[in-house]
């Protein structure tokens, strides 16, 4: 499948094809996110807290 973009990747593992935690707050978690947490910012936003494959640094539209 296509990898979700991520503006700001946080912790990544050290493999050649790293899995990362994305720090972005999004209206809904991407399909395949294993640990989606709601973040209260006044409007319901979500953050994927599991290690996933992303296109890091790709501007998200």
Features:
single chain, about 60 residues, mainly beta, Cysteine Protease (Bromelain) Inhibitor, subunit H, two-stranded parallel sheet, two-stranded antiparallel sheet, about 0% helix, globular, Bowman-Birk_prot_inh, protease inhibitor
Task: Characterise this structure.
The protein has 61 residues and is mainly beta. It has one domain: Ribbon (Cysteine Protease (Bromelain) Inhibitor, subunit H). Helix content is 0%, strand content 34%. It has no helices and six strands. It has strands at residues 5-6, 9-12, 20-22, 36-40, 44-48, 55-56. The strands form three sheets. It has a two-stranded parallel sheet with strand order 1-6. The chain has a two-stranded antiparallel ribbon with strand order 2-3. The chain has a two-stranded antiparallel ribbon with strand order 4-5. A hairpin with a 3-residue loop joins strand 4 (36-40) and strand 5 (44-48). The relative contact order is 0.38. The model has no long low-confidence stretch (mean pLDDT 93).
Summarize the structure.
The chain is mainly β and 61 residues long. It has strands spanning 5-6, 9-12, 20-22, 36-40, 44-48, 55-56. It has a single domain, classed as Cysteine Protease (Bromelain) Inhibitor, subunit H, CATH 2.10.69.10.
What is the terminal separation in angstroms? 18 Å
Number of helices: 0
**CATH superfamily assignment?**
Cysteine Protease (Bromelain) Inhibitor, subunit H
Name the helicity range: under 10%
C-alpha Rg, in Å?
11 Å
According to DSSP, the number of beta strands is: 6
Describe the largest sheet: 2 strands, parallel
Shape: globular
Q: Give the helices and strands as they follow along the chain.
A: EEEEEE
DSSP strand content: 25-35%
């Amino acid at each position: 499948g296509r990898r979700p973009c991520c503006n700001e990747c946080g912790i990544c593992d050290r493999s050649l094809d790293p899995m990362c935690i994305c720090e972005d707050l999004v209206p809904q978690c991407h399909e395949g996110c294993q640990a989606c947490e709601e973040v209260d910012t006044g409007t319901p936003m979500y953050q994927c807290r599991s290690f996933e494959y992303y296109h890091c640094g790709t501007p998200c539209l």
